[in-house]
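Entry 14. Structure prediction run on the chain below.
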Amino acid sequence: MSTDYSFGVVMLELITGKPPIENGDRIVHEVRLAIEKHDQDYYGLEDMIDPIIRNTANLMGFK
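Output returned:
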């Protein structure tokens, strides 16, 4: 596993508030599924953002 991939997984953990593997599902797989749905503003990922971040932060950087 590359360092870049590992860094990406850590970033996903921070943004989503989820562990890398939860109930047998890998967070990377969940993100891929969300991106395939692809909404215009957040690439299908708005629902995956930790509610604490989503409700208190400016999400402009996620666009």
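The mean pLDDT is 79.
Filed with the rest of this week's runs.
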